[in-house]
Amino acid sequence: MKMNILKDESKELEIEFETNDLTIPDLLAAELLKNPDVGFAGVIKEHPNVGYPRLVVKSTKKKAGDVLEKALESLSDEFSKLKDSIKK
Fold first, then answer.
1. How many domains, in total, are found in the chain?
2. Long-range contacts made by residues 59-62, C-beta under 8 angstroms, separation at least 24?
3. Mean pLDDT, 10 residues at a time, over the chain (88 residues)?
4. Domain limits for position 38
5. CB 14 within 8 A of CB 54
6. Which CATH number fits the domain that encloses residue 40?
7. pLDDT on residue 5
8. Residue 33: what pLDDT?
9. 88 exposed, middle or buried (CB, 10 Å; 0-12, 13-18, 19+)?
10. What is the Cα–Cα distance from 86 to 70, expressed in whole angstroms?
11. What is the layout of strands, in order, in the sheet containing 12-17?
12. Rg of the chain over CA atoms, in angstroms?
């Protein structure tokens, strides 16, 4: 999936996903909201004919990129556990 970073500041990050599927952006936003260092995480959902979904992350203490990376690692761990449980 292709992504474009629209804003990359210390405590704010905005990423556009070049897809109309909201699954991954919504999943990331939900995971980010579990982190107490995240002040805001949400998805801007444009109409499919107008634009693509954008994930917005605003951090209170740490760098926005760092909290996003932590959320991605957490989701990766969860999917690995799910994959392992299915194999059994």
1. 1
2. 59/11, 59/12, 60/11, 61/37, 62/37
3. 95 96 95 97 90 96 96 95 87
4. 3-87
5. yes
6. 3.30.1360.10
7. 97
8. 97
9. exposed
10. 25
11. 3-8, 12-17, 54-59, 38-44
12. 14
Residues near 35 by beta carbon (within 8 Å), at least 6 away in sequence: 67, 70, 71
Helical pair 64-87 and 23-32, crossing angle rounded to 10 deg:
110
The per-residue pLDDT for 76 is 94
Q: What is the distance between the terminal CA atoms of the chain, rounded to a whole angstrom?
A: 30
User: What's the pTM value of the predicted model, to 2 decimals?
Assistant: 0.88
Look up residue 17 and give its amino acid.
Answer: F
Please answer whether residues 69 and 75 qualify as being in contact, where contact means their C-beta atoms are separated by less than 8 angstroms: no
- 10 Å CB burial of residue 10 (0-12, 13-18, 19+) is exposed
